[in-house]
Amino acid sequence: MNEDECQQVRGVLVEYADGELPAAEMQQVAAHLEECSDCREGLTALRRSLELTKAVWAQSLPRQRPAVAVSARRQVRHLKAVAVAAACVFLAVGAGLIWKATRAPQTPGGQQTRIYSAAEIGTMIQREEASARLAASARILSDQPGGKEAAHDAYVYLARMYPETLAGKESRGRIEND
Predict the structure, then answer these.
(1) Integer Rg of the chain from CA
(2) In degrees, to the nearest 5, what angle opens at C-alpha 129 toward C-alphas 159 and 74?
(3) Which of 5, 18, 66, 76 is the most exposed place for a label (fewest CB within 10 A)?
(4) Cα–Cα distance between 87 and 50 in angstroms, integer?
């Protein structure tokens, strides 16, 4: 396959997966995917990431104190569409980066890089997304009356349960600054 054509297809895979491309472009991408196993693998990884996002999103938020929970749920409802879109973009970009990284198994210095299995990648993405979702909940809680204590508890939980994730690292910083 032509690398330029592959790059074009990779640039619209999210829209293709969501069925948001014009019909003619959908047909062009579908035709390319029939012939290009690399791009098909990228689409498969993207779809797995989106499924993981939906599964993680479906899980309930951490248990909250009743007065804070009602207010937080209202705010979460308003932000749900934005959060889902942000999570999908985050996962799509992450899937693209992981896909690109697995296609180039050596660093510029010629050293071998670690290539993760699909299961490992799925777990890593799921943990990053879950921790990011919990961090977003903690940030929302901290803005609510009486929510600072619940947010602090959420940050402690994140730092302990997700230490390798970006949200876990940021939570450690928040705890140290409190």
Answers:
(1) 19
(2) 90
(3) 66
(4) 9
